[in-house]
Hints:
There is one protein chain. The chain has two domains: 14-81, no CATH class; 84-149. Helices cover 19% and strands 36% of the residues. The protein has helices at 32-35, 84-100, 142-149; strands at residues 14-17, 22-29, 49-53, 55-56, 67-70, 80-81, 109-117, 120-130, 133-141. Strands 1, 2, 3, 4, 5, 6, 7, 8 and 9 form a nine-stranded antiparallel sheet that branches.
Amino acid sequence: MRYPEGQQIRVGDLVWWDEGACVGHVQWIWDEERDRDYSWLGENMQGPPIWLCNTHPYQPSNSYEGIQHDEASLADEGVGLLTEDEKRELRDAVAIAALRSILGFEGRKYCVQTRAENCELVDWIFSLKNEGAVLETIVVSREDIRDRSE
């Protein structure tokens, strides 16, 4: 399977989806030899599925959790790999969020979303979670990241 830009999809890839509103990982990819038929997923699947999960940090799993998409819907859903610059910016945003967190990131799972204005990323939003409940939300602006690097 391939991303709309042509790169091969791999488990663990760091990706955008929901038209850039979510950042997560490829959790699971359908494999013909292993999984055989995907008809059990229902009529809406136009092809073999992948599962995306926006729980961080990434942990490999043999289960399919998160949101499923088929290869045909990836472009419509805005699914694509983060560039090296975007990965670097995300790492910087995580570092800032960890410093600002009251609860701390150590040993905690969190979700990453973004906020955009005029099609331009403005904020990284981190939601620290425990068993599905949001414990704390931290917003890191791109301006915060630029100020940190100067």
